[in-house]
Amino acid sequence: KGKFIGPISMRTLLISDPSTKIKLLVKSVEYLTTLHPHTSFHTIVNIMTKYNLFAATVVDKKGKLLGVVTIDDVMRCLAPKA
């Protein structure tokens, strides 16, 4: 349906049987933390710190995946000359 339903690790994808449906491999999470295109940098830093995330998904109002913000992206903003 084109909606983001949850995270899946690269390791899981690589070691899974190729015939397994992706929806069966998605990590089950109680609360799905996502960002939106206009989420402020301050909010992104707070969310990623609070949940100890290395990456956070960006979705639109309908839940369609638009992209990913990584911890590297955050660090480049916090320390651009490092």
Strand order within the widest sheet? 1-2-3
- How would a textbook summarize the main sheet? 3 strands, mixed
Unreliable stretches = none
Helix content: 25-40%
Query: What's the helix count?
Result: 4
Q: What structural category characterises the helix and strand content?
A: alpha+beta
What is the count of β-strands? 3
Oligomer classification: single chain
Element-level helix/strand string: HHEHEEH
- Rg measurement, Å: 14 Å
Q: What fraction of residues sit in β-strands?
A: 15-25%
Measured distance between first and last alpha carbons:
41 Å
Overall shape: globular
Mean of residue pLDDT values: 89
Walkthrough of the structure:
- By secondary structure, this protein is of the alpha+beta class.
- It is built from 4 helices and 3 strands, in the order ααβαββα.
- It has helices at 10-15, 22-25, 41-50, 71-78, and strands at residues 34-35, 55-59, 65-70.
- It has a 3-stranded mixed β-sheet.
- 4% of the residues are buried.
Short description:
This protein has 82 residues and is an alpha+beta fold.
Entry keywords:
3 strands; alpha+beta; 82 residues; 34% helix
Ordered list of secondary-structure elements with their pairings:
Layout: H1 10-15, H2 22-25, E1 34-35, H3 41-50, E2 55-59, E3 65-70, H4 71-78
Parallel strand pairs: 1-2
Antiparallel strand pairs: 2-3
